[in-house]
Amino acid sequence: FGEQELVLRFGRWGTRLWELSHGIDESPVVPSRKRKSWSRENTFATDISSAEVVAWLRDNADALWRSLEERSLRGRTVTVKLRTPDFTTLTRRVTPAEIPSSGSDLAKIAVGLLERFDFPDGSKFRLAGIGVSNFVEDEEETAAEGEPLLFDAPR
Question: Is the CB of residue 89 less than 8 Å from the CB of residue 83?
Answer without folding.
Answer: yes
